[in-house]
Specification:
Blueprint: H1 2-10, H2 13-22, H3 34-52, H4 55-92
């Protein structure tokens, strides 16, 4: 029974996303909600930028990083939609293949 409990524990969006993106599960899932995790990531970005970017370039650097991040978010969202649709099609297939 422990085997099945471990399967259920691994069945979460963070692990599934990690498996699809990099081929392994996350070391530890983050219990914060998505909004909190996004805010935390932005705080870290701003803190790290302050340490390496001159003050006069700071605002523009953050803008550039956000533009890049938004482009990546768009790509990953679209890829997630495609992956979800592919999984749905495989689940609805009445054949015996599962690959």
């Amino acid at each position: 029974m422990e085997y099945f409990m471990r399967m259920l524990e691994r069945t979460n969006l963070q692990n599934i996303g990690s498996w699809i993106q990099i081929g392994s599960e996350v070391e530890q899932t983050d219990s914060a909600d998505m909004e909190e995790r996004a805010e935390k990531a932005l705080k870290v970005l701003k803190r790290d930028f302050e340490q390496i970017v001159p003050k006069k370039s700071y605002r523009r650097g953050i803008e550039i990083a956000r533009e890049y991040s938004n482009a990546c978010c768009d790509i990953y969202f679209n890829m997630g939609m495609k992956v979800g649709a592919k999984i749905m099609l495989q689940l609805l297939d009445e054949g015996l293949k599962d690959n």
